[in-house]
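for the writeup, i need someone to sanity check this before i put it in the appendix. the sequnce is what the collaborator sent (i think, or maybe the updated version? ugh). structure was predicted straight from it, no edits. if anything looks off just tell me and ill rerun, i have time this weekend
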Amino acid sequence: MDFTEKTYEELLNEKLESIDSKFDKRESSLIYNAMAPNSAEIRSMYIFLQWVLDNVFGDTAEREYLERIALFTKGLIPAKATKAVCRLESDAPVEIGSRFTADTATFVVIEELESSNSYYNYKAECTEDGVTGNSHTGTAIPVEYIQGLTYCQLTEILIPGEDEEDTEVFRKRWLDSFHNTAFGGNASDYKKKINEISGVGDCKVFRATNPAGELAGGYVSAVIINSDYEAPSQTLVDTVQETIDPTKDGSGNGLAPIGHTVTITGVQGVTIAVEIAVSCTGEIVFDDIKSRIESELQSYFKSLAEEWADTEQITVYSRQAQAAVITAVKEIEDITAFRMNGADGNIILLYNQIPKLGGVTDAT
């Protein structure tokens, strides 16, 4: 049923046509002036009815009503925003709770890590929810003076922050729940539980071999990718392992069922160096557009990484990479050479690998 077809003009014409033509129905006539406001009012009623109809069904409902439908039908709620956690490295001890600024973001030290390279290491959490903290690495400045501190860096993202789950992503997750029922340690159950852990973007779940190298019941392997669709940090891998199966002895101390032994690993980033030769319009040279070429290739590689969990293995297609570049960088008239890792053609990755751009050089 679609009420959008009930337009004001159609409703007005229906009313006027139902009245004998011997009466004056011209615009500004008594009959016309009586029917026009009524048609507008009924049109408003149809708009409201369409809104009600749309919000009764989860595939068209607005976020507020989609959340209620998903909760009462499948017990699902949108994933909340989470904070980024980074590794902070310093040359002097830092107290838990100390605050540091990096560009426009602020981080709070929440835990001490094992020292390395004669530096102190800590977990530092961004004070803002979402992806804000994911882009801040480099020099960190203490908000308050710290005795003996001369060096302080945010060196890596341990657990990426995530924005609140997008409405359409949540809608898809709700719809998918009807086709892949998560129950009792099946593949869908593991994917659901692992993907709900902060910092995880997606995962692949497989049967695994026992210590003797044989496929056996109860042994499970899961490969994860972080929420930025990059290789996860060891900290994130350890966090997921601790949550799912901390003892790996089948005791069921984590979220894994009794009798299951689960091993968590991270997807591996495979560095791909690109050599490209282009002919450009006017006096444009390679160095003028190099950064834009890199940006487009990074976007293409990330799009492949975003689909990693739903594919058996990623193929990096040379033609697709070239198309991404030449479509976006309008100054390029033609690509005369394109090589990835020194070879022409496509690159086929393993089931647990994603592409990572290793730089772009001029092949002329």
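The mean pLDDT is 92. The longest strand covers residues 268-280.
thx in advance!!
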